[in-house]
Amino acid sequence: MPLPDNRRINGPRETYQITSFLTPQHNDADVPSTGIVNDKGLRKDTRRTDEVRPIYLKAGVVQSANGSAYLETSGTKLTCAVYGPRDYAKRHQFRSSGKLTCSLTFAPFSKPQRFTEIRDSLSTEYSNFIADSLMSAVCLDAYPKSQIDVYVNVLEDNGNTLSYAITAASVALADAGIEMVDLVTSSSLVFNDDVFCLDPDSSEQKHKDVYGKMSIAYLPSLNKISCLLQDGAVEVERSIELVNTCLEGCLRVHDVMKECLLKAPNTDEES
């Protein structure tokens, strides 16, 4: 007779999904099923189409990292940790400038469907875009033979994860004391022929009426776009309008970033 496994925690025979006991945050009747906004031009969460979600941003949350940041908004939570500058991994190769690497991962519980793959194509695409966006601001020439590693962990995903990851990574780099020419802020939107939605949540990104998405990484002090990612065809005039809308969203996020860094603890004074 096999011995019982006392270390295994056996759940009850009858289980229920936790969503059965949760009350909806918004009334689905506010938005008709045929459109992404209602008759008043409001979205499902009562935001206007050009309105971003409230953001909570804090720096210096990971003590073991050189710099870190935590970002939380409606249904989206992520952390970012920066390690470096440290010796380049391939010491036999000389680099006159530093190297910046980025890795974004989704927690298994970050989405309604459990993540089984450790490294999927979406994480790889986001990681490359974040690295390209940050390299335009980081002074890599000041760190020869060194590398700076950025790690982003998405705890909960409710849309616009890429833009929030860039924002948190930029704050974490500043918290680590990395030399930068400017902070990198980011914003995204989804669109169709009639309407756009700035800072979309997951339901808006998957809406049947949406056929395009745009993400922008922006250097506000230099007034330069470091990276732009667009899915879906659109006319030139419409594209310019969408870019300007994204830039307005970037400026709003930039104010939150500056306030966060001003409130961040000064590690030099504490030591």
UniProtKB/TrEMBL annotation:
Q: Which SUPFAM superfamilies match?
A: Ribonuclease PH domain 2-like, Ribosomal protein S5 domain 2-like
Biological process (GO) annotations?
nuclear mRNA surveillance; poly(A)-dependent snoRNA 3'-end processing; rRNA catabolic process; rRNA processing; U4 snRNA 3'-end processing
Do the record's keywords include Repeat? no
GO molecular function term, any single one: RNA binding
In what residue span(s) does the Exoribonuclease phosphorolytic domain sit? 51-179
Q: Name one Pfam family in it.
A: RNase_PH
Keywords assigned by UniProt? Cytoplasm, Exosome, Nucleus, RNA-binding, rRNA processing
Q: Where in the cell is it found?
A: Cytoplasm; Nucleus
InterPro entries per record:
ExoRNase_PH_dom1, ExoRNase_PH_dom2_sf, PNPase/RNase_PH_dom_sf, Ribosomal_Su5_D2-typ_SF, RNase_PH
What's a GO cellular component annotated to this UniProt protein?
cytoplasmic exosome (RNase complex)
What is the similarity comment for this entry?
Answer: Belongs to the RNase PH family.
Q: Which PANTHER family match?
A: EXOSOME COMPLEX COMPONENT, EXOSOME COMPLEX COMPONENT MTR3
Name the UniProt record assigns to this protein: Exoribonuclease phosphorolytic domain-containing protein
Organism, as annotated? Clytia hemisphaerica
